[in-house]
Design a protein that fits this description.
By secondary structure, this protein is of the alpha/beta class. The protein has a single domain, classed as Rossmann fold. Helix content is about 45%, strand content about 25%. The chain contains eight helices and seven strands. The chain has a seven-stranded mixed β-sheet, with helices on both faces. Strand 1, helix 4 and strand 2 form a beta-alpha-beta unit. The radius of gyration is 17 Å and the shape is globular. The relative contact order is 0.14. It binds S-adenosylmethionine. The site of S-adenosylmethionine has 20 residues, from helix 4, strand 2 and helix 6.
Length: about 220
């Protein structure tokens, strides 16, 4: 089956591209044992986020949707010594697991988990920090992507990179009749993005161990 091939190819790339010190699979193991849903980014996707943040020279990273902190750890490891990452998570139990994983990775001084509905915590973050973020990763509930785009645009510094995950939804994004709120959220997000003059963006469809999906990559002028 095609899905098996995608996973096999992911394994081939992992074996040659991820040295042992970049193996954060212990986090995925902890998350599984803590019975978190297995919806973390894949290792190769985590490394892509890491590299994008590095290429950007990101010093202030915002992540919406922490889960157990797997992508958080990849991103925080791209930060320089004085860099800082804020990650927003609605579920207090997931946030607790993430905090513990972040501490195990030795990143507690760099990565802060903010617990609460991002719709409530984003305005608080804006009041406190304004538009300081040079890298923003959207990965929480897809219904709220339109709101997250508005906040990301406010919180982004000029030159910021925005990545929005899971925008393909196994191709459902092309179904204009979809009644799935998550698909509708992504469709609305795309409409807003097309009307946002400050952001230049593209989309990449992906296959791999996580199936068929994709992400939006944006640059804030
Ligand atoms: N970024 C994580 C990773 O790759 O390791 C995966 C994040 S998971 C796909 C989405 C997370 O967003 C879940 O942990 C969920 O609890 C959280 N979430 C959903 N709705 C939220 C909201 N309104 N505010 C904050 N977090 C939310």
């Amino acid at each position: 089956r095609l899905e098996n091939k995608w996973s096999d190819v992911d394994t081939v790339f992992l074996n040659s591209l991820l040295p042992a010190e970049e193996d954060h699979n212990y986090v995925l193991k902890v998350n599984r044992e803590a019975e978190l849903p297995q919806i973390d980014v894949s290792p190769l996707q985590g490394k892509l986020l890491h590299l994008l943040a590095k290429i950007r020279g990101a010093k202030r990273i915002l992540e919406i949707g922490t889960l157990g902190g797997y992508s958080t750890i990849w991103l925080a490891k791209a930060l320089p010594a004085a860099g800082k990452l804020y990650t927003l998570e609605a579920n207090p139990y997931f946030a607790e697991v993430a905090r513990s994983n972040i501490a195990t990775a030795g990143l507690e001084n760099k990565a802060e988990v903010v617990v609460g509905n991002a719709i409530d915590t984003l305005p608080e973050l804006y009041n406190e920090l304004k538009n300081v973020f040079d890298f923003i990763f959207l990965d929480a509930d897809k219904q709220s992507y339109p709101d997250y785009l508005k906040w990301a645009t406010k919180l982004a510094a000029p030159g910021a990179v925005i990545v929005a995950d899971n925008v393909v939804r196994e191709g459902e994004v092309a179904n204009v009749q979809s009644t799935d709120e998550r698909v509708q959220g992504v469709q609305q997000f795309l409409k807003l993005l097309s009307e946002e003059p400050r952001i230049e963006a593209t989309a990449v469809q992906t296959v791999g161990s996580k199936g068929y999906d994709g992400f939006i990559l944006g640059y804030v002028k």
